[in-house]
Amino acid sequence: xxxxxxxVRIIRPRALLKTKIRIITLLILSLLPAFAQRERQDSVIVxxxxxxxxxxxxxxxxxxxVRVRGIGPEGFPVDSVWNYGTFDFQQPNFIYRFxxxxxxxxxxxxxxxxxIPEYQAAGRRVVEQDLNLNRDEAxxxxxxxxxxxxxxxxxxxxxxxxxxxxxxxxxxxxEVLGAPATYPxxxxxxxxxxxxxxxxxDYPWYQFGIDLCLGSxxxxxxxxxxxxxxxxxxxxxxxCALRPDxxxxxxxxxxxxxxxxxxxxxxxxxxxxxxAAGWAFFALTCLFCALMWRKHTIWRWFFSLWYTILGLLGxxxxxxxxxxxxxxxxxxxxxxxxxxxxxxxxxxxxxGRWRPAVTAMAICNSLLLTVLLIGWAWQGQSANPxxxxxxGATLISSATYAIITRKIx
Length: 409
What we know:
Layout lengths: L12 H29 L2 E8 L11 E9 L5 E10 L7 H7 L3 E8 H11 L3 E6 L3 H14 L6 E3 L9 H11 L14 H8 L4 H10 L17 H8 L11 E8 L16 H22 L4 H23 L19 H7 L6 H21 L11 H22 L1
Antiparallel strand pairs: 1-2, 1-5, 2-3, 3-4, 4-6, 5-7
Helix pairs in contact: 4-5, 9-13, 10-11, 11-12, 12-13
């Protein structure tokens, strides 16, 4: 009996090789799903979410957030938003701390499905920019956000132009990339104040208050990266930015909500602007002073009302300059005009024995405001246009008081 007849099959070397190849191929194919699943577990996309301006004053520059979506390292789907722009009005002494410069914001995380409806309801445009991050960088970003969102880490000291919902993201992105990204050198505004005015143009009284409270600390030349403190400028600049290795920072851009690009309340009528009010008060002051000059009398109610307002504003500037931690409140040249000493006139016009002090203060006002108005163009602090007619009204009324009081005496 031969071996073949006994039912044993003879395998030739060539057939054996084919069998091995077949077995290895089947083994590889069987392992592919496991490798694919592992790849999917590490697959997350990090993107920037830019929201158009809204109607509230804290929405005038828009909003920026981070979105993370895909399959997280735990193997579960994720689609979360990471928001550096949340704050709590219920915090103790919130208003006082805000004025003092101790405003605390926090990083909050929640499902993206909770984020987008607010902007859809308000009709505000929302744009998403996918960041060109590899798997390790994306996971590092997610890990960093998770750590920073922990209760003991999430609170930070907010700064309107240097540490806000947009600047925080660019800083974290630099940490993830290992080096700063390269942003195009395309200045549009030149200073923080100019950029604020561009975005606050329809809210002139709000900008009037900013120009009143903030001194030359927002008037120095800035870079295009510093202009990115406004989310819309961040969206525009990031679209052309490059990673440290030279590749584009943004891999894809899409519109998530095709709302309006500007959902503010619209322009303020010119006759309701601070500039119109300033010139109207200047004209009224000139009329009052002419009547007082003609009658050789002092309308104490007028001086008391106006100079009390100036003195109270001076108290506010005193707090902002000497107590507040806001770095942009000092120096402020307006303090030569708006200071607590104006209360000497506001109260002194009703007290006879204060007349010499009131007259001396009126003379000082006249001299200081003359120098201030003439020399303003040769210094670095930018002023709201409405300040000049108001300073002119103060100059004319002070000079009128000093001259008429001397004639009466």
